[in-house]
Every structure is written in C-alpha cells, then in structure tokens.
Write a structure and sequence with these properties.
With 214 residues, this protein is mostly beta strands. Helix content is 0%, strand content 56%. The strands form two sheets. Strands 3, 4, 5, 6, 7, 8, 9 and 10 form an eight-stranded antiparallel β-sheet that branches. The chain has a two-stranded antiparallel ribbon with strand order 1-2. This is Collagen triple helix repeat-containing protein.
C-alpha cells in the first residue's frame, strides 16, 4: 500500500491482543495503528516506532504454496522375472549301465544374451546294495550340450540295504547367446560301484528356473 493509505480489517471476536506483520521498504517508513470499537469510537491509537519492529529477515516471509504441477509421463515398465519348471515323476533308473549319463529332468525355454538364470533342482538317488558297498556318481547340469555345473558324490558302508541320498543344488547361469529354444537338463552318471545291484531316482525330481533380464 502507498503512503497515506488506510487498510481496514474487521475482527468480530473478543480478543486480548493482535499481532500484525508489516513488510517495509526501509527503516524510515512510519506505521500508525488504531482501532475502533463496535460503536465506532477510536481506541488503541498508536504509532509504531522503528525500534518496536522486529525484522523478519531480508528474505521476507514465505509465500503461499503454489498449485500442483501436471503429472509427468509414465516411465518405462521394468522387467519381471519369469519362472519355468518341471516336476518330473520317478523312479528313473540310473544304474546299470556304468558310466552312462541319464537325463532325469529338463526345461526348455527361450533365452536372451546376458540374462541371469537361477537354476535349482532337488531329488534323491537310491542304491540297492549288498554288504561292503561303495559308489561314486555325479549330477551334471547342462545348457544344451554344454556342461555348466557338476556335483560329485561318493559313499561307502559295510551294511547291506537300500541307501538313499537326497540332493539339492542351486546355480546361476549367465546366458552366452540369444536362442529361441535352449534346454537345461539334469543328468546322473554312476562312475564307480562296488557291490551295487541297481540305482534309481526317487519318485519326485524337481527342476526350477527363474529368469532375470538385466
């Protein structure tokens, strides 16, 4: 407001005090404050001296919050992991013959270079034995014709009977090349035996593949 202007505000309340904020251009500005009661009589006339003014700051008071801007464009949809699996049914014979790979589970899916495949399998191998038995076998994980992971198991014992060996394994394969059809297979090979009649998987052979795309 300019010099000599009067600003009028009406307050209909029983208040003991008011607090006003004056934003002035310099200390030389003089401000007078007065009020009138409900009958129009002048009350509480007062000229505010510069020494009575508490400076707010050189920056001034914070203004009202502006209107909310428009919503931005929707970002790209991120990749979602995919699951491929098989729950094969056994038993599947793995011995005899000796030194022969037997596929016990497989999953075929499309892959893209540099995808990360978390591969988990779980099953058991059961050996029918006579006294003083021993065996060595391997569980091999293949990507198509490429061997990518191996677990070797060897056991021996004097007592005869059926010996069951549970297996669980996890492995992460980084895809080397894009393919519309790539097969991951779990194979068992018995490489050495003593007093072993036969060997086969249990009734459940589980193979899961979770694919993550970077």
């Amino acid at each position: 407001m300019g010099p000599g202007k009067v600003a009028t505000r009406f307050y209909f309340a029983n208040l003991d005090a008011f607090e006003f904020q004056f934003i002035t251009s310099s200390d030389a500005v003089k401000v007078s404050v007065w009020g009138k009661d409900s009958a129009g009589r002048l009350v509480a006339a007062h000229r505010v001296l510069p020494a009575e003014l508490d400076p707010i700051s050189s920056q001034g008071i914070t203004g009202a919050t502006g209107a909310t801007g428009v919503t931005g464009a929707t970002g790209f949809t991120g990749t979602v992991p995919t699951l491929a699996f098989t729950n094969a049914i056994g038993p599947i014979p793995v011995f005899p013959p000796l030194n022969t790979e037997v596929t016990v589970a497989s999953v075929t899916q499309s892959v893209v270079i540099n995808q990360q495949l978390k591969i988990d399998y779980a099953f058991a191998v059961e050996f029918v034995t006579s006294a003083n038995w021993a065996y060595v076998f391997e569980v091999r994980l293949y990507r198509d014709a490429t061997l990518i992971n191996t677990r070797t198991v060897n056991r021996n014992l004097s007592a005869a009977g059926t010996q069951r060996f549970p297996l669980g394994n996890t492995y992460v394969d980084i895809v080397p090349a894009t393919s519309a059809s790539s097969t991951y297979s779990v194979r068992v090979i018995v490489t050495a035996v003593t007093n072993i009649t036969s060997a086969s998987t249990g009734t459940s052979i589980d193979l899961n593949i979770i694919t993550f795309t970077p």
